[in-house]
C-alpha cells in the first residue's frame, strides 16, 4: 500500500510539472497580450485569455513538442516544449513600430442607415464555428458617402437539437471576436489589422440576430472598403472568462488518430440571397493564415458553396455623413 501511495504521488507530481499556466507578454512593456494565438504546429491550436494566459498540459497535448505564439503587430515566436517557461515574451514587429494610423473624426449632420442581416433556421446551411477558422464580410461606404460603422448584426442559429427533453435550451456561453481589415488590391482582407477588435459573448438566450454595438471603436470605412470578421475563441465560464481547454478532439481510426476541431454553438447561417461574393475565410493554423474567397476554389466539396450558400449574411448600421 505504501508503495502504491508513493507511485501515485510521483505520478501526480509529474503531471504537475507538465501542466502549467503560461502568460504571453509584450517584450518591452511586459503588458499581457490578450487573446494571443498559440499554434501546436500540427494544424491545431488555441487562444490565450484576456490576461494573455493559457494552460499547457503534456497530458492533454502528448504529441506536441513545439509551440508557436503570434498576435497582430508582433513577430511570431516558436518555443520547444522542454524549454517552455511561465512567461513568453513577444517582440513588436519593426514595421508595426513605424506605422501610425491616423483617423479623422467624422463631424456634422448624419443619417443613420442600415444593411439588413440575412439569416435562416436551416441547420444544414450553416457554418460550424471552430477556433481554427475566421470569416470576413466586406462593407463599403454607404452610397459612397463618408460612413462610420456603429453596429454589426450577426445572424446566429441556436439549433433546435439542443433543446432538452424538458423543452429547455441547453446552456452554453461562447466567446467571439470581431476584427477589421482593409481591402487589399486583389479584393481580399489585408493580412494586418490596424483597427481595434472587440470580444463578446453569445449564449443560449440570444435571438436570431446578435446586435453588437461598436460605435465606441470609431471605425470609419476607408474609400476602398472594409472587412469585418468574426471568429470563435471558445466556451467561457459563468464569469465570462475563457475556459482553458483543448479545442480539438482525438478520434482513433483504422489509419491512426485523427484530430477533429471542436465545433461551438451557435451556428452561423450562410445565405444564398446575397448577390456576388462578399465572404472570405481563412484557417488560422493552416496555409500561412491566407485569406481565400469562399467559393469552390476554397473547398470543392463544400455543400454550402455548391448549394449557393456562399455568403455570411452579416448586417450593419452606419452613421452616414452626406456631403453638401
Task: Please render the helix and strand layout as text.
Blueprint: H1 2-17, E1 19-26, E2 37-39, E3 45-47, E4 53-57, E5 66-70, E6 77-80, E7 87-90, H2 94-97, E8 111-115, E9 126-127, E10 133-139, E11 147-155, E12 173-182, E13 198-203, E14 209-213, E15 219-220, E16 226-235, E17 248-253, E18 256-261, E19 268-271, E20 279-283, E21 292-293, H3 303-306, E22 311-312, E23 315-320
Parallel strand pairs: 1-7
Antiparallel strand pairs: 1-4, 2-3, 2-5, 5-6, 8-23, 9-19, 10-16, 10-20, 11-14, 11-15, 11-23, 12-13, 12-16, 17-18, 19-22, 20-21
Strand order of the largest sheet: 13-12-16-10-20-21
What's the tally of helices?
A: 3
Mass-distribution shape? globular
Give the biggest sheet.
6 strands, antiparallel
Written description of the protein model:
With 324 residues, this protein is mainly beta. The protein folds into two domains: 2-97, Carboxypeptidase-like, regulatory domain (Immunoglobulin-like), CATH 2.60.40.1120; 111-320. It contains three helices and 23 strands. The strands form six sheets. A six-stranded antiparallel β-sheet has the order 13-12-16-10-20-21, with no helix packed on it. Strands 8, 11, 14, 15 and 23 form a five-stranded antiparallel β-sheet that branches. A hairpin with a 5-residue loop joins strand 2 and strand 3. The termini are far apart. The model is unreliable at 1-17 (pLDDT under 50).
Key structural traits:
2 domains; 37% strand; mainly beta; 5-stranded antiparallel sheet; 6-stranded antiparallel sheet; 324 residues; Immunoglobulin-like
In brief, what are we looking at here?
This protein has 324 residues and is mainly β. The protein has helices spanning 2-17, 94-97, 303-306; strands spanning 19-26, 37-39, 45-47, 53-57, 66-70, 77-80, 87-90, 111-115, 126-127, 133-139, 147-155, 173-182, 198-203, 209-213, 219-220, 226-235, 248-253, 256-261, 268-271, 279-283, 292-293, 311-312, 315-320.
Amino acid at each position: 500500500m505504501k508503495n502504491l501511495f508513493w507511485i501515485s504521488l510521483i505520478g501526480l507530481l509529474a503531471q504537475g510539472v507538465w501542466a502549467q499556466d503560461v502568460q504571453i507578454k509584450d517584450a518591452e512593456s511586459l503588458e499581457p497580450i490578450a487573446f494571443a494565438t498559440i499554434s501546436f504546429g500540427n494544424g491545431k491550436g488555441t487562444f490565450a485569455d484576456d490576461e494573455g494566459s493559457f494552460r499547457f498540459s503534456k497530458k492533454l497535448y502528448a504529441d506536441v513538442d513545439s509551440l508557436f505564439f503570434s498576435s497582430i503587430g508582433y513577430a511570431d515566436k516558436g518555443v520547444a516544449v522542454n524549454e517552455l517557461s511561465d512567461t513568453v515574451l513577444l517582440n513588436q514587429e519593426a514595421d508595426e513600430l513605424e506605422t501610425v494610423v491616423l483617423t479623422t473624426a467624422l463631424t456634422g449632420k448624419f443619417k443613420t442607415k442600415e444593411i439588413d442581416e440575412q439569416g435562416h433556421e436551416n441547420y444544414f446551411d450553416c457554418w460550424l464555428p471552430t477556433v481554427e477558422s475566421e470569416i470576413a464580410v466586406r462593407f463599403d461606404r454607404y452610397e459612397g458617402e463618408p460612413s462610420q460603422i456603429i453596429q454589426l448584426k450577426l445572424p446566429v442559429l441556436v439549433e433546435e437539437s439542443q433543446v432538452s427533453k424538458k423543452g429547455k435550451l441547453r446552456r452554453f456561453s461562447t466567446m467571439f471576436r470581431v476584427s477589421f481589415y482593409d481591402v487589399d488590391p486583389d479584393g481580399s482582407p489585408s493580412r494586418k489589422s490596424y483597427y481595434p477588435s472587440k470580444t463578446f459573448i453569445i449564449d443560449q438566450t440570444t435571438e436570431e440576430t446578435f446586435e453588437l454595438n461598436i460605435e465606441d471603436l470609431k471605425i470609419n470605412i476607408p474609400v476602398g472598403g472594409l472587412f469585418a470578421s468574426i471568429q470563435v475563441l471558445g466556451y467561457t465560464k459563468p464569469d465570462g472568462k475563457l475556459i482553458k481547454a483543448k479545442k480539438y478532439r482525438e478520434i482513433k481510426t483504422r489509419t491512426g488518430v485523427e484530430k477533429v476541431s471542436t465545433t461551438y454553438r451557435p451556428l452561423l447561417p450562410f445565405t444564398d440571397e446575397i448577390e456576388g461574393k462578399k465572404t472570405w475565410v481563412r484557417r488560422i493554423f493552416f496555409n500561412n493564415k491566407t485569406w481565400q474567397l469562399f467559393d469552390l476554389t476554397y473547398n470543392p466539396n463544400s455543400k454550402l458553396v455548391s448549394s449557393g450558400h456562399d455568403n455570411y449574411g452579416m448586417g450593419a448600421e452606419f452613421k452616414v455623413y452626406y456631403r453638401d
